[in-house]
Amino acid sequence: xxxxxxxxxxxxxxxxxxxxxxxxxxxxxxxxxxxxxxxxxxxxxxxxxxxxxxxxxxxxxxxxxxxxxxxxxxxxxxxxxxxxxxxxxxxxxxxxxxxxxxxxxxxxxxxxxxxxxxxxxxxxxxxxxxxxxxxxxxxxxxxxxxxxxxxxxxxxxxxxxxxxxxxxxxxxxxxxxxxxxxxxxxxxxxxxxxxxxxxxxxxxxxxxxxxxxxxxxxxxxxxxxxxxxxxxxxxxxxxxxxxxxxxxxxxxxxxxxxxxxxxxxxxxxxxxxxxxxxxxxxxxxxxxxxxxxxxxxxxxxxxxxxxxxxxxxxxxxxxxxxxxxxxxxxxxxxxxxxxxxxxxxxxxxxxxxxxxxxxxxxxxxxxxxxxxxxxxxxxxxxxxxxxxxxxxxxxxxxxxxxxxxxxxxxxxxxxxxxxxxxxxxxxxxxxxxxxxxxxxxxxxxxxxxxxxxxxxxxxxxxxxxxxxxxxxxxxx
Length: 476
Ligand code: HEM
Known about the structure:
- The protein is an alpha+beta fold.
- The protein has a single domain (32-475), classed as CATH 1.10.630.10.
- Helices cover 51% and strands 10% of the residues.
- It is built from 17 helices and 12 strands.
- A 5-stranded mixed beta sheet has the order 1-2-8-5-3, with helices on both faces.
- Helix 12 crosses helix 17.
- The longest helix has 32 residues, at 275-306.
- Protoporphyrin IX containing FE binds next to helix 12 and helix 17.
């Protein structure tokens, strides 16, 4: 796959057949009433469908208006590249939603901008290098094996279970152990699960209904969130303080993400992260890392059960390569089909289904005028289903991700992890985790969707299944 460094900014202003006149992009008529009702009553549940229809009806660049508010939506890979990479300085973080996210994650990597963000990214990046992430492979497999032991009991009872809830618990455990290794007690993990659930509910509510009451108004939901954040902060700060003491005593701390963040020093200033900054990053990694990976895995199991032929190929690969031994990071290059299943799952159901940016200054995309002050939206969900790029876009075909076929497509035809400087820092972690979980579980079981269980994607904060994904286990 072409990397961001290799990707070249496409020639945006001279696509064949286009006149040079710069005009406003097409789009639906201004709809203030619809927008106000969205602010008060919330967004419709079929948002992904609405974006698909907008792209189909109006093309590569769409403008939506509501009074003075302007929203732009681009779906052509060249234009996505322009927004996320080529002219990324013009598409920033400032938005009402970013302020909401800050209330939970503080000023961490996801929410910060400018010099603050650059320094944080420089400090955190080494902890996410592939070699470092490989150290977490054993944790990923151990936690999956512990889950399988619990599942063995479920299977005896032959009781259907919600695979989304299971993947959520598993991903929380994995990111928790990767961050804090042995400093994480059973109470901490329960609290982390609670914190993740309550935070997600809160962020989903704010995504759906932007005019929710601000956090300082003591509604039951706001109080629940504040309590969860307070409890989580107490734990995180206490672990950080203990670790600092160990470091001061020259006792080697564990080689986990927290350890690496504690040891990180800015090359220019020699300074590290203070406790508040560490808290913000740790909280960001828990928040950004577990739901997204869990959603991806839940959809992968769903798709595999709907496509038994792909399931058979997966099992054949696992049997041939692993021959019954526990998977490790070293096996991953020999498990290309397992990886392609994950990639194809993220094409059809990208957990981060839409990415928003605030427009800093006027711009031109194609022959269209983009005005400052509005919001720019790109959607992996929509671009991943463009019929001019993908044959049979709605079909599940992991073979699309052979290296040869990837090389034939534009870089931004596929961007489940975003792109440009703000590309997901956890992408290697997430891919490794998803592959190892699929391999460890797939070696032992087939997962079958309970007949009659239908699920649709629910485009809230992430692209979750809209109801429990009920499955049964079939030992292999
Ligand atoms: C399948 C799993 C995942 C998906 C689909 C995903 C997706 C994304 C996307 C699309 C972005 C870019 C957002 C934007 O441009 O506004 C992003 C950013 C980010 N992700 Fe992930 N992510 C995943 C897993 C993880 C994991 C496991 C971690 C950490 C352990 C993580 C941490 C982050 C952070 C810190 C950022 C902000 C990076 C920055 O702005 O510098 N993500 N993720």
